[in-house]
Amino acid sequence: MERCAARRAPEEERRVRANAREYNEKFQYASNCIKTSKYNIVTFLPVNLFEQFQEVANTYFLFLLILQLIPQISSLSWFTTIVPLVLVLTITAVKDATDDYFRHKSDNQVNNRQSQVLISGVLRQEQWMNVRVGDIIKLENNQFVAQADLLLLSSSEPHGLCYIETAELDGETNMKVRQAIPVTAELGDISQLACFDGEVICEPPNNKLDKFGGTLYWKENKYPLSNQNMLLRGCVLRNTEWCFGLVIFAGGLKQQLLLCCTEGRERHPLMPSCFPGPDTKLMQNSGRTKFKRTSIDRLMNTLVLWIFGFLVCMGVILAIGNAIWEHEVGVCFQIYLPWDEGVHSAFFSGFLSFWSYIIILNTVVPISLYVSVEVIRLGHSYFINWDKKMYCAKRRTPAEARTTTLNEELGQVEYIFSDKTGTLTQNIMVFSKCSVNGHSYGDVQDMLGHKAELGERPEPVDFSFNPLADPRFQFWDPSLLEAVKLGDLHVHEFFRLLSLCHTVMSEEKSEGELLYKAQSPDEGALVTAARNFGFVFRSRTPKTITVHELGQAITYQLLAILDFNNIRKRMSVIVRSPEGKIRLYCKGADTILLERLHHINQDLTSTTTDHLNEYAGEGLRTLVLAYKDLEENYYKDWSERLHQAGSASEAREDHLARLYDELLGATAIEDKLQQGVPETIAILTLANIKIWVLTGDKQETAVNIGYSCKMLTDDMAEVFVVTGHTVLEVREELRKAREKMMDASRSVCNGFYQEKLSSKLTSVLEAIAGEYALVINGHSLAHALEADMEVEFLETACACKAVICCRVTPLQKAQVVELVKKYKKAVTLAIGDGANDVSMIKTAHIGVGISGQEGIQAVLASDYSFSQFKFLQRLLLVHGRWSYLRMCKFLCYFFYKNFAFTMVHFWFGFFCGFSAQTVYDQYFITLYNIVYTSLPVLAMGVFDQDVPEQRSMEYPKLYEPGQLNLLFNKREFFICIAQGIYTSILMFFIPYGVFADATRDDGAQLADYQSFAVTVATSLVIVVSVQIGLDTGFWTAINHFFIWGSLAAYFTILFTMHSDSLFRMFPNQFRFVGNAQNTLAQPTVWLTIALTTVVCIMPVVAFRFLKLDLKPELSDTVRYTQLVRKKQKTQHRCMRHAGRVGSRRSGYAFSHQEGFGELIMSGKNMRLSSLALSSFAPRPNTSWIETLRKKKGCEGSSAGSPSGAADKTLKV
Amino acid sequence: MKNKTSFLPKEGEAQPSRCPDNSAFKQQRLPAWKPQLTIASVLSSFFLTGAFCITVGVCLVLSANSVREIQIDYSDKCSDCSKFRENSSNWNKDCQCSVNFTLKEAILGDIFMYYGLQNFYQNHRRYVMSRSDAQLLGRNVNIQRSYCAPFSTYRNGTPMAPCGAIANSIFNDTIDLFYNHNSSVIQVPLLKTGNSWWTDKNVKFRNPDSYNLSSAFAAGTARPPYWQKPVYLLDEEDERNNGYVNDDFIIWMRVSAFATFRNLYRRVRRVRRFAEGLPAGNYTFRISYNFPVARFKGRKHVILSTVVWSGGSNPFLGIAYLVSGSVATLTGFVITGIHLKLRKKKTYFQKQ
């Protein structure tokens, strides 16, 4: 692969000339080529070794190795260190090499991705990496703007319009409009484009998503460019067949800068940390920008430091002992054992002995610890990848553990930060229910009486009578269609409204094949529903709307569209029917509409309200529909006034209709949740995990989803809504919320908390008390996250059961996560699917990306990815829990076995003149950690299970020990260490007692050094094997194999090492010749080993059993019950599918901003063919786009500044 | 990299399925034995262990008690010789001393004679290292590069044979046992071979291949500085017990694990009067006192002992077994007690 472009000097401004590669080349702009791999074949070894020796542990062992080469110090042979070190380095190098190989592969794949580039007048398939700044590329419908930031030149739509979805960028799901500047919009075909040689001079790459400033110089004219002309990387082209764009920033700089700057770093665009070179663009996403460590990692590092301190202490003690001994005893012994050359004082001898002991005792910090931990984590990652229950058949995506270093932290999560759109919801709106004239339609006759999954429903309504019906639309209540067919006037009017009152645009490719372009998915759903029930919106001109009402084409004259906005919360159209009647149709939020109704029909209003509540209770998004007949004069009057006060049009509808005559009914749209979301949230909540939803969406929508996924419930004592605009307001609101909660808990739950804590174990599925929820919007959040208020905010939020932050920017998402991380010291998990979630995914301890959808940014930034939110429960409760458990058990055992092994030297030091004589054979020391004891504990670390997976779902409380960090903490560590030291004492002193003055059964001396070494080593291996047997709770065949295999390996190697032939070959290396068979033939030796084992193990058994008997953990109980009632079915069911009776006023549909109303009335977006048919008087044709641009501009600037968090509710 | 797992194409699918294998291993559903600590298993293990330990303990104590042992510290009794040895100018002069003792009862069976040393740090790292196994295997090696220093070569470059601190400091007292029977003194016949491990004698130690031993050693090597005679004169009577394969030497070279130890020196040869063992009566150890111990505050013993299946008379193991057995049994009872006392609470809990 060719080399990617080198770094260059910071640029002041950017000059890009279209179709002029040579010209652009001299600026050395970033190319599209990416390189995330670290090594190539030549550099691998040196670079990798250099990197590995930057690890403290590896350097430490290198240091030990060097120490061992000094003969005065060397208490062990050099190979006792080098063999494990080489092993560890090799394993790591192999892992790094495989990783890099796959990085090379993915680089190649990305670089070789095809895109259509216009090169010398021909549209060519070009590899992605070859796309250069200044190239013109072609995009097609539903294609990602994946390559670069583009200047829109022209599109298939009239006036160079094109529609994009920016969900990946900012999480908003509505469509946005981009327009090419008029001069380029005409460049429709390739030959024209090939001649285009305009030059763009614009700002250098920066991180502002919604600002762009530049000028196009073409044919000696200047054209200003704005963000309105740009297609940013990450957008999706919608409803636009094709478009051409000029590459301005290759490699999606804006995107990348957004990502790195949301990590809270300094925001200078060209700072190296923030701007690692466009070459490494994907690196930002796929490589880890911040190396995430688990809390166990950090604990482990602390403990290793402590152990190191302990090691130095032992070294000092023994060195002092050595100095004293040499001074008192060694001096007298010099005739037989003179001091080494260069050693002239006992003090210096002590100094040397310190280093000797450091070498000997270094095995308390075993090098194999880190590599074993890595191996275990790798195993756990594979289990996640292999999990069939986390495989989504629909999207054909298995779960993937993208990092292998965080698994056990999955078992400790306390806070989940979730995105809404695409994560909790599918971002699909479905017309689900409606209420017409007091009659509710759409209930599914389900046998179980509750809403079922799609597959369980009966046959949907058959719309085959209607040739124009959308085959994808499904409805399950046949009575509505019957009502249509029977000619119910209300129902007809209801659907007529739906087919007229909207800003959807239609496109009819061929007869009957209608395509709707809706500004928001809700609207699309409503118009599609009307279409299927026989009121087909066919086409529109600026002045007319053509509807096929039950097969009959009727053209209404469109008099006005009063588009939706956030303040009025409704939209209206005024149409004149063919009969000449003028009618105002309106749909909008119930809160607004119901109070504007004539109070003549109270009954209908109250029934409809009941229905609305019912729908809202199911988490549906509702709209109320109403209409009013207008007098001809009245309309004229209004329309004149409107013309006069053209700009002050905000209040215009209020002039027109303060009251609506007729309530038609209500619609309910289902914002379809991902499968199993409420269940998952319920289980996770039971597992004491707090779930915060952070969404860029509106408050109403967010709250609505909160209800539908059961995060918010009516059982909740209160839902606090913080919407303050100033610091003081926000502070006040937070304070009030806190006070309320405190009052309530003081009065009601006094004692209850005490009880709850003490009886933690008695109830598996205890009720969750004190339920509050907090809803805060982005604007308030910006204040709440300021340094002086963040603690207050956090306290309030953490006291709440559920927290919903809406209208938040990606940066704020990250800030919220950071806040919880900072003060709560809890493990956080962020889950999301879009580019706007990347920042929080990277900030949180664990980032989870929803894969299988279009965007991949989130997945690339994530640590784990799968395609359904519901898999989260399995990831945490099963995999995470097991990983944590296994890792903790592994660490406990690992420290234990190394202390038991090493401390024997310490005790022996007091009997051998502190001379750093080892107790064991040097080969035993070499192999103990890597052969004799490594595999059984690895097998336990990989395979152990305390309770079966179903149980961890049934008893979410089983998750709690991980959150409370109970299984491995400093206390547990000291217990392990104590057990290790206890074992080492017995391991040394029992053989000492037996061997002193003892003789063999053939009269020879028993207590020779080599026999002692073999006895201690054998009993050590047996004791730690029995101990691992005791620790292993899940003996698979592999565990059996490893445990018995280790013992067998020990004896095999022992006898081999002590064999005659090896000794004959290397007499100086294998001095223990004949020792094994001579020593192990002694009954006394075996009795010693047996006694040591019994004395080491029995107390452990006793303590474990008493703990189990008196203070069982939940998992013990579950295991026990499992054992006792194998046949009985557990009656515990976590999930109850109970229909919730809602009492909440609904959130209304139209989650989004103002639609295309103005665009439609201006006729800008109509095709010429349709325009020709209509007879509309051209208006001043720039006005609409100007206003639109203005709006976008101001909304953009507020959203863009990270501190002043966009308050999108403000925009009009 | 994660998914190399399954490439089994599903029916009618062109692309390979990414669905993971449904194998027990990958789905973590391997059949497994799930042992649990139940009251039955724990109690039975405690009581069985207790019973086993007590039984073994009783056997060990009984057999250890049946061992007869006589231990005599002769470092004080031969104080003259001790002082004599402190003067290094006397290094090649002989010093004899006698130690008397009386056996009230005969000692029957195989009788082993040991010398015991106290405070002699044979387990010191530098001491343990200081040998060349290749040399002791009769190979002609450059001992300069071995760990024998400073006992590897003399100043003139002549290598020591055997080299190293261990060999140099060999225990070189000679101890003879005499039986004083009715004023006649009978030397107790002692065996000086067959005391070492077979592997040591036949594998670990070999003399250099040569026509005769003296020529092999005399040419180019010298005895260690503290030795009174060269290695090829260790046992002039028995060629197979001479040189590196001398039993006394081999036993000394098998260093002890602790600073206080005893090494097998001789066995009583069970012939004639001593066919049953040592009869009761007066005995004398006649010791040629060569090994100085006073300088390092050491002590020397001579020991006579019999042996049973569990070795010599070391009561530690038996007592340790008895204690552990009792503690295990006791713990068993305590656990039973605690379990019964709290059972009510427990069953209540499990009904929950």
Automatic annotation (TrEMBL), chain B:
Residues 1-20 are annotated as: Disordered. GO terms for cellular component: endoplasmic reticulum; Golgi apparatus; plasma membrane. It is found in: Membrane. InterPro entries: CDC50/LEM3_fam. GO terms for biological process: phospholipid translocation. Pfam families: CDC50. The chain crosses the membrane at residues 37-64, 319-342. The keyword Membrane applies. Keywords: Glycoprotein, Membrane, Transmembrane, Transmembrane helix. Its main location: membrane. Belongs to the CDC50/LEM3 family. This is Cell cycle control protein 50C. It comes from Poecile atricapillus. The gene is Tmem30c.
